[in-house]
């Protein structure tokens, strides 16, 4: 199999690929980036786990178990710690449900998880983390800290009823920057192309999928548009990128200050704005850095198209 096709196959399977370091954009947790974890956990009666806030600004209000990642943590480790501290339970992540971002300065990972041990935190165990925890039937009156969690709870309910995408959990692989690796797909006449960065003989052994590093105050979900503008400047006004979603997330924070970055492996499709247009080849590129890679392996083509058609990908939202 072609090396680029092998990379695509790995990413479609939820695996990871190394991200080359970019020392100019290296990020440090709590300095350049803030990652939040939150857990949606149901009991056998379908009630959702809630915690009562102890923080002064939202004292007594209710929220999902959630909090900021700490230096040296993996995303899963942070989730388990927050659930234990705030709700009293040990938990096991099942899958990410969605990712929300407001630039690299604020990224929240929401998980569907299940209880594996511990006991419900009571008022006698109140501390600075929370006052208590309870199971909520979503109908009884409850003063919420913010209504934003209703969307997260709904995502958990829908996934339990009918999973829309395969189980997606972070892969432990170091990354020094916040970035998107983009599988930008153009298809027509039963043919599929992906945009790739050309082979550079002095640096790499083969062409690679483009990686866009996020700068300060730049939206993660806008990275694709930046790539299109850079690669097809003269015709990008005639094209639109249809946001699909995330194939996988790469992170390993075990070396604070050196591996605090995150890579989002993202799949999206590129189409002409003119729905009546029927091109027989991808748009011309006017940046010599890039080229189109045609996928000819039938099995791989079917996997890509199915993911796009079914929108079988972890969703990411800019808020």
TrEMBL record:
Q: Pinpoint the Nudix hydrolase domain residues.
A: 32-159
Q: Do the record's keywords include tRNA processing?
A: no
Q: Which UniProt keywords apply?
A: Hydrolase
- Which top-rank group of organisms is this from? Eukaryota
Protein family (similarity comment)? Belongs to the Nudix hydrolase family.
**MF GO annotations:** 8-oxo-dGDP phosphatase activity; 8-oxo-GDP phosphatase activity
Q: Which InterPro entries match?
A: Nudix_hydrolase, NUDIX_hydrolase-like_dom_sf, NUDIX_hydrolase_CS, NUDIX_hydrolase_dom
- Which Pfam families is this protein grouped with? NUDIX
Protein name (database record): Nudix hydrolase domain-containing protein
């Amino acid at each position: 199999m072609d090396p680029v096709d092998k990379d695509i196959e790995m990413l479609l399977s939820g695996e990871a690929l190394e991200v080359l370091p970019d020392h100019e954009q290296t990020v440090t947790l709590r300095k350049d980036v803030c990652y939040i974890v939150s857990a949606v956990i149901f009991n056998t009666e379908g009630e959702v786990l809630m915690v009562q806030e102890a923080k002064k600004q939202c004292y007594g209000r209710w929220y999902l178990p959630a909090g900021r990642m700490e230096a040296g943590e993996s995303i899963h480790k942070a989730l388990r710690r927050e659930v234990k501290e705030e709700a009293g339970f040990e938990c096991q992540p099942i899958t990410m449900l969605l990712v929300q971002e407001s630039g690299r300065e604020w990224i929240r990972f929401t998980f569907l998880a299940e209880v594996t041990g511990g006991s419900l935190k009571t008022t006698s165990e109140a501390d600075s983390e929370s006052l208590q925890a309870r199971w909520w039937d979503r109908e009884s009156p409850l003063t919420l800290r913010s209504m934003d969690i209703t969307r997260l709870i709904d995502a958990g309910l829908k996934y339990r009823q009918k999973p829309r995408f395969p189980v997606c959990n972070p892969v432990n692989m170091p990354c020094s920057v916040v970035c998107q690796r983009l599988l930008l797909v153009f298809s027509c006449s039963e043919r599929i192309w992906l945009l790739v960065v050309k082979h550079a003989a002095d640096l790499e052994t083969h062409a690679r999928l483009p990686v866009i590093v996020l700068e300060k105050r730049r939206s993660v979900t806008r990275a694709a548009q930046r790539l299109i503008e850079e690669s097809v400047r003269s015709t990008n006004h005639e094209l639109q990128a249809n946001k699909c979603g995330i194939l996988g997330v790469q992170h390993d924070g075990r070396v604070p200050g050196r591996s605090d970055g995150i890579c989002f492996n993202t799949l999206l499709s590129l189409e002409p704005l003119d729905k009546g247009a029927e091109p027989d080849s991808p748009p011309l590129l006017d940046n010599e850095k890039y080229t189109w890679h045609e996928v000819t392996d039938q099995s791989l083509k079917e996997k890509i198209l199915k993911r796009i058609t079914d929108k079988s990908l972890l969703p990411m939202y800019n808020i």
